[in-house]
Predict the structure.
Amino acid sequence: MNYFLNEQQEMIRDLSRKVAVEKIRPVAAKHDEEQTFPWDVVRELAAADLFAIFIPEQYGGLGGGVLELCIAVEELSRACGGIALALAASALGSFPLILFGSEEQKRKYLPDLAAGKKLAAFALTEPNAGSDAASIQTTAVKDGDSYVLNGTKQWITNAGEAEIYTVVAMTDRSKGARGATTFILEKGMPGFEFGKKENKLGIRASATREIILRDCRVPKGNVLGAEGLGFIVAMKTFDQSRPGVAAQAVGIAQGALDEAMAYARERVQFGKPIASFQGLQFMLADMATEIEAARALVYQTARTIDAGEKNIAKESAMCKVFASDVAMKVTINAVQVFGGYGYMKEYPVEKMMRDAKITQIYEGTNEIQRGVIASNLIKEYARKKK
């Protein structure tokens, strides 16, 4: 479909596709097998200015928005969802700074993020606080001009590789969710350590580690927004970032369809290409239709965010849950199109199926997303009846 992208957006799409084909696809299987972080590709992304696309111009960025980020993440994910996550997760860690950072904080951190000299990460999840984010145990105690942080964050994307971290901790547990505060931490701060690198089912090129805080002293100037705004920062960040997860899912699904189409046209059974069999044609048709529907929802949600709409939690959740479910369904069907070959690591679709699964889980499980959608629907209908 024609999404009427402007000239800059088309340039981002074409450049991202070029990087995906020439730089990511040849090394995707190697990084997946060895679980190595793709610094070779990160340097290519930085050289192409892809880390700058969503950062305001006054801080060294290109001044684009969520749609530009989604376009890039989708194209990169067609080649490898794990490698694309180096960009997407850095965007997740950058959004709190863009949305809530002071002028001083933005000028200090955003230029290096825009240039790809440094990566960012976002740290909310803990061993006992996943979907129930309000139950986080990490504490931040004010001590003079600093806060002292203690606790453990789990499953943090880009952890260990990133230089800049936005971390949510409790400053006043008696206030519940209103007692959380977000801090900017830097790799190398005393008391800021990393746990082991996780051995994952999919997105194995992406680094996932624990963050361990032991009496980590953070200057009060590193408070993001204000004390007590931690969960507002987190929820507003997720509203902006979930379309990026959805774009990752769309890209993985499109990559799987590309592979399935090529294989179906080449694989001959009963004297003809399997693409000529109606049962398989219907499967491919459904895959393509669902991908296009997911893409349309993602792009429109991104455009709505970029237009300045504030209450987009429902739409953001919708595009994330729909696109990730499509990605899982499409990649499973792509493996089925390949038959026994699809189950083998020599073919890329088994990796795409493994990579797709996480899109249903992180940045809020799809069950949580459906709860967000339903609660917003109920509120909307209640307002209409008043």
User: Anything to note?
Assistant: The longest strand covers residues 146-157. DSSP finds eleven helices and ten strands in the chain. Residues 230-266 form the longest helix (37 residues). The chain has three domains: 7-119, 121-228, 231-385.
